[in-house]
Amino acid sequence: MSFLGFGKPQPTSAERISAVENELKVVAEMHSRMVKICTLKCIDKTYREGELAKGESVCLDRCAAKFFESHQKISEQLQKETAARGGGMGF
Q1: Domain segments of the chain as ranges
Q2: What is the per-residue DSSP string for the chain?
Q3: What is d(CA 26, CA 42) in angstroms, rounded to the nearest whole number?
Q4: What positions does the domain Tim10-like occupy (predicted)?
Q5: Within 13 Å of residue 39, how many CA atoms lie on the same side as its CB?
């Protein structure tokens, strides 16, 4: 219920917990995809050395940075679209 009947109703504790759980799932899935994609792209499949080569390490750093940057941009765009439609949890 909203304060004095104005604005949007506040989310319940269960709704907040569900939102946090969903966000954690999204982050875990994003991490899993990033590891898979960057590993395939950057790590030599012959595993000649026990440690990462400098080129592999640099590639992984750049891949992860680009992955997070693109994820951030997509998230911002989705938030704008959700807000424009009047959605969102309104914490």
Answers
A1: 10-84
A2: --GGG-SSPPPPHHHHHHHHHHHHHHHHHHHHHHHHHHHHHHS-TT--SSS--HHHHHHHHHHHHHHHHHHHHHHHHHHHHHHHTT-S---
A3: 24
A4: 19-80
A5: 9
9-59, pLDDT tens digit by residue?
A: 677 888 889 889 998 998 899 899 999 999 999 998 887 888 889 999 999
Which residue type, as a one-letter code, is found at position 40? L
User: For the whole model, what pTM was predicted?
Assistant: 0.65
Q: Which fold has domain 10-84?
A: Helix Hairpins (1.10.287)
